[in-house]
């Protein structure tokens, strides 16, 4: 059986490390973020909430002790399957049990909040100018301590629209990870254009249902990638696997609303 380690391969060989959370946490605190120290297992991190210039909603930033990359995650639609997911950003992270993975991987993760079905993302993060203002706000709040870290962008469900707009605006992250997050031709086209024109890693983690599965399969065909080669078990669930030098595709052998949520927890 193929054993897949879900630590992103883009983390290997990257330069730039923020040693300790103190500089980032101090910078965020000076920008009126509320920070607290957290522990998950033997791993410590800081949890900071506040606002950045260039975006109107609250932002949650998790900062592990030794950070090697910066990840921005756009959460998806609120499907009322997990009540805790709908309360706030902290409860969402808890519901999906993301803190241990974030902490152990050394990713600083920024979670911008959006209401409804990604309404605020769609209103405020629309083009190159608005994305620049958003990222400038992150770097201003952290006193540029995160600016030189490799950028990883991820999205769940409807948050994938935001990633597509970001790629169209010319952003070239080191990695893009999408969890059941391609729902339209324009998204698939922007992802394809970004992937074929650069060196960034693409990770597609899907369930076997609906538009996301259809578009992911079409994208694989358009990229002329070879057929799915194997299967693997992740937390008791069977996933189809396709793996390349800068491409990972995992598809959960189940299509349901709950699987749509679980795929994020299982493959983050």
Description:
This protein has 268 residues and is of the alpha/beta class. It is 33% helix and 27% strand. It contains 9 helices and 13 strands. The protein has an 11-stranded mixed sheet, sandwiched between helices. It has a two-stranded antiparallel sheet with strand order 1-5. Helix 6 crosses helix 7 and helix 7 (185-197) packs parallel to helix 8.
Explain the layout of strands and helices.
Blueprint: E1 18-19, H1 22-30, E2 34-40, E3 43-50, E4 59-64, E5 66-67, E6 69-74, H2 89-95, H3 99-105, E7 107-112, H4 119-124, H5 128-141, E8 151-156, H6 160-168, E9 175-179, H7 185-197, E10 201-207, H8 210-222, E11 230-234, E12 237-243, E13 247-252, H9 257-267
Parallel strand pairs: 6-7, 6-8, 8-9, 9-10, 10-13
Antiparallel strand pairs: 1-5, 2-3, 3-4, 4-7, 11-12, 12-13
Helix pairs in contact: 6-7, 7-8
């Amino acid at each position: 059986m193929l054993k897949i380690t879900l630590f992103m391969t883009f983390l290997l060989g990257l330069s730039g490390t923020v040693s300790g959370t103190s500089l980032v946490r101090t910078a965020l605190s000076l920008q009126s973020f509320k920070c607290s120290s957290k522990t998950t297992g033997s791993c410590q991190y800081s949890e900071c909430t506040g606002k950045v210039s260039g975006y109107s909603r609250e932002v949650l930033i998790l900062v592990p002790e030794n950070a090697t990359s910066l990840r921005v995650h756009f959460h998806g639609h609120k499907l009322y399957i997990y009540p805790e997911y709908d309360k706030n950003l902290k409860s969402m992270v808890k519901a999906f049990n993301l803190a241990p993975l974030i902490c152990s991987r050394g990713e600083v993760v920024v979670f911008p909040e959006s209401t409804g079905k990604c309404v605020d993302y769609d209103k405020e993060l629309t083009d190159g100018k608005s994305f620049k203002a958003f990222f400038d706000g992150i770097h201003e709040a952290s006193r540029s301590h995160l600016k030189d870290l490799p950028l990883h962008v991820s999205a769940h469900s409807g948050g994938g629209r935001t990633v597509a707009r970001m790629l169209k605006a010319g952003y070239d992250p080191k990695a893009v990870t999408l969890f059941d997050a391609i729902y339209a031709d324009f998204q698939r086209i922007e992802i394809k254009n970004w992937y074929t024109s650069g060196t960034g890693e693409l990770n597609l983690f899907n369930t076997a249902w609906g538009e996301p599965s259809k578009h992911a399969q079409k994208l694989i065909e358009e990229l002329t990638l070879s057929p799915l080669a194997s299967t693997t078990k992740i937390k008791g669930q069977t996933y189809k696997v396709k793996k390349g030098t800068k491409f990972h595709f995992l598809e959960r052998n189940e299509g349901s609303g709950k699987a749509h949520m679980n795929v994020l927890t299982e493959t983050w």
